[in-house]
Design goal:
The complex is a heterodimer of chains A (482) and B (249).
Chain A lengths: L4 H27 L2 H23 L4 H20 L7 H6 L17 H24 L3 H5 L5 H31 L4 H17 L3 H8 L6 H21 L15 H7 L5 H13 L6 H24 L5 H9 L2 H9 L5 H4 L6 H30 L4 H26 L3 H4 L3 H24 L5 H35 L1
Chain B lengths: L1 E12 L2 E12 L3 E5 L6 H8 L7 E6 L8 H7 E4 L11 H11 L4 H15 L14 H13 L5 E5 L7 H16 L3 E6 L2 H7 L2 E6 L2 E6 L8 H12 L7 H4 L2
Parallel strand pairs in B: 3-7, 3-8, 5-6, 6-7
Antiparallel strand pairs in B: 1-2, 1-4, 8-9
Helix pairs in contact in B: 3-4, 3-5
Classes of the chains: A mainly alpha (482), B alpha/beta (249).
């Protein structure tokens, strides 16, 4: 890159344009042209629909606004990881797809500039295709009036700031990692900070930071300045020469495969070792389930506050926690591809069967441990806790089967395919909505409601099993016909 | 004895005819070179011969199996070194070869012997406990070569065997392939490298536009293989082939 400032900016602009073009083509080619174009429309539909439903059930608009901002921050935290080729996930998901991102190795480009441009492009791209549709929630919140467009614009700006703040936090964490700060120290520092703010009784301050739209101007302006400072500071701090030393491991494969009394022991063992040895280790599915647990716990609190009724916690947590099947399956398929298995004498059906076994082995403790904590904390009745446990097992398998059948081996990619994402959402809603309604209306569950929900769990579990069994032949035919 | 027989093989990807009427045979004991420019249909042919893609037309026999009908049986009997390396895995080379051995129902003691043999032959003893994802491309290629031969198959399909290997290991691999074929096995090598094909192959088929356009026996034919290749490709391949006069530069 040229040393002259105008040369640097010219190069950065060219890189930014190439990255943006690459991002657009990646999504439109990967997820099928118009189907990707429909994705923002789907997000807008979900945002408006969910907001209307929440308002109709008496939820405070301020709570809805807070919820949307929390989602934006969460998405930003997740998106921030995409800027750095150091993470296993990035190497696997994006490494082979982004030509421009890898040009720092072959062209005289500063890796810091390149990453800065990459993150800027990501922020702009997702602010448009994801955050802007989310901001349409402002329409039902404020009513369909002449002020709707300014209201959507204001919410968009506020959500975008929350999203970028989330990204900046993740980038800062990764930059610290490249300077040798251990991951546990970073996570611990964030937990202590959040705990301090929470226990100091400053939820108002936390809310102001999370929802810039409602914050006093100095606080919102402060958040802008802090976000920019953290983002720029992180890029300066980031060590482009950071390289993780080679990792070694003693032979665990044979003993693990011997210990599994299964038909597909080799395939299952490979998946378990891949997950446990990749960044975050075997705790990744637990973290995903814990995040879901926290969201559901917050929702239970909100419902109790508004209606004065506490939903049946067993049913509530049982029906929703199973959704972590999606993230767990995502981890299980992150480190291989179906094509790679085609050189061995194994069927695609066997690969999917092995993934299902691995899902049961990894996913069961990952959801049942937080579930047990939740039913104890919220003092569920024995019947409620038992029904919830059944729902967790049956619905978890159903969500898993639905994910595998709809998404095949690429659950991450289908998130941006409007048709497939829409089908998945509808499939989830069919099970979860009536169950949550039952959990709201009959508290604690009567024996007849409990029996009906237990039957529902068995039925959906069976559907999940069938779907996951049919996924193998379905995707085998697709791959071999390519 | 014929190990591989292909008649009228066709395979299209949408509007692109990747393989368009391929006919060929390879006998046991042959080291067959499959030579052609980029996009000529080499990799698709190998994928069809090993049951990884379903052909649109034509018949294939590999060791008395039909890969279009019984792909698992074909893959059980052959060894495959794919063009693209395996995706990052968190198994070590030792564990990965144990994984392959278990998939192929090999006795653990045999697998252990093969691991020691191949680590010694290709020189990755010191990397046996390193995670595969942290190996260099060359080291990953060595492990992938080992997995293709760990069950000592009678037919092996190899796509660019020497990619990313240093000259010493290239020489080892070349000699091994010649010796392996001489033991009565069929070795099917897809490559862009004319010199390597001329040096080690007992017969070379030149592929262009998705079909076999010429066959030569290196050493027996007077015309240099490069000339045969350029003539064949100029005549037959309508795709992106560099201008001949630029090759002189």
């Amino acid at each position: 890159m040229s040393d002259a400032p105008d040369g640097q900016f010219r190069t950065a602009r060219a890189v930014f344009v190439a990255l943006a073009l690459e991002e657009w083509r990646l999504h439109t080619r990967l997820f099928g042209g118009w189907r990707f174009a429909a994705f923002p429309v789907l997000i807008a539909g979900l945002a408006v629909g969910a907001t209307v439903a929440l308002l109709e059930t008496g939820t405070d608009p301020a709570t809805i606004s807070l919820g949307v901002h929390v989602l934006a921050v969460g998405f930003g935290l997740y998106s921030g990881t995409a800027g750095f080729a150091g993470s296993d996930m990035l190497e696997n998901v994006f490494g082979r797809l982004s030509l421009v991102l890898s040009t720092a190795e072959t062209l005289p480009l500063s890796r810091r500039w390149l990453l800065g441009a990459f993150l800027l492009k990501d922020a702009a791209f997702y602010a448009l295709v994801f955050v802007l549709p989310m901001a349409t929630a402002a329409i039902p919140l404020g009513g369909l009036t002449a002020g709707a467009i300014p209201a959507v614009s204001a919410l968009w700006l506020s959500l975008s700031l929350a999203f970028v703040a989330g990204m900046a936090l993740t980038v800062a964490g990764i930059a610290l990692r490249t300077r040798g700060v251990p991951g546990w120290a970073i996570v611990g520092a964030i937990a202590i900070l959040a705990g301090t703010v929470w226990t100091a009784g400053e939820p108002g301050l936390l809310r102001s930071i999370l929802v810039p739209l409602e914050a006093p101007l100095p606080v919102a302006a402060g958040l802008v300045v802090a976000t920019v400072a953290v983002a720029v500071g992180s890029l300066v701090l980031y060590d482009p020469a950071y390289a993780r030393p080679d990792r070694t491991a003693s032979d665990r494969f044979a003993s693990l495969a011997d210990a599994l009394p299964l038909e597909d022991d080799a395939l299952v063992s490979k998946t378990l070792l891949d997950v446990s040895r990749s960044s975050g280790g075997v705790w990744k599915p637990f973290v995903s389930a814990a995040i879901l647990l926290a969201l559901v716990a917050g929702l239970v609190g909100v419902v109790r506050e508004i209606t004065g009724i506490e939903p049946a916690p067993g049913i509530f947590f049982g029906a929703v926690l199973g959704l972590s099947a999606f993230t767990t399956y995502n981890w299980l398929t992150q480190f291989d591809s179906l094509e790679a298995y085609l050189v061995y004498p194994v069927s695609i059906e066997a690969v999917f069967r092995a993934k299902r076994t691995a899902f049961v082995l990894v996913g069961t403790p990952a959801v049942f441990v937080p579930y047990l904590g939740a039913v104890v904390w919220f003092e569920a009745t024995l019947l409620d806790a038992a029904v919830g446990a059944l729902l967790l097992a049956g619905y978890g398998l159903y969500y898993y089967g639905l994910t595998v059948y709809v998404a095949g081996f690429d659950p991450n990619e289908f998130l941006f395919d409007a048709v497939r994402f829409g089908a998945f959402t509808a499939g989830v809603a069919v099970a979860v909505v009536p169950t949550l309604v039952a959990g709201f209306v009959v508290v604690p569950p009567s024996p007849s409601v409990a029996a009906a929900l237990a039957g529902s769990s068995l039925g959906f579990g069976a559907v999940g099993y069938v779907l996951s069994s049919r996924a193998g032949p379905r995707w085998d035919a697709r791959y071999r016909a390519r | 004895m014929v190990a591989i027989r292909v008649d009228g093989l066709c395979k299209s990807y949408g509007a692109v005819r990747a393989v368009d009427g391929m006919d060929l045979t390879v006998d046991r004991g042959e080291l067959f070179g499959f030579l052609g420019p980029n996009g000529a249909g080499k990799t698709t042919t190998i994928r069809a011969l090993t049951g990884q893609v379903r052909p649109d037309a034509g018949t294939i026999r590999v060791l008395e199996t039909d890969p279009a009908v019984e792909p698992l049986e074909t893959r059980r009997q052959v060894g495959i070194l794919p063009e693209q390396g395996s995706p990052p895995s968190f198994l070590t080379p030792r564990e990965y070869l144990e994984f392959v051995g278990r998939i192929r129902d090999l006795d653990p003691d045999t697998v252990a012997e093969q691991i020691a043999l191949w680590a010694d032959r290709l020189g990755f003893q010191s990397k046996l406990e390193t995670l595969h994802t942290d190996l260099s491309r060359g080291q990953q290629q060595k492990v992938m070569i080992a997995q293709a031969f760990v069950h000592e198959p009678a037919v092996v399909f190899i796509d660019e065997p020497l990619a990313n290997l240093d000259p010493i290991v290239q020489e080892v691999v070349k000699r091994f392939l010649v010796a392996y074929a001489a033991e009565g096995n069929a070795v099917f090598v897809s490559t862009h490298n004319i010199d390597v094909a001329a040096e080690i192959c007992s017969r070379v088929g030149i592929v262009a536009d998705g079909r076999l356009v010429a066959e030569r026996t290196p050493g027996a034919d007077d015309e240099p293989l490069l000339e045969v290749f350029l003539d064949s490709v100029d005549d037959a391949d309508a795709r992106d082939v560099p201008a001949g006069d630029l090759i002189e530069r």
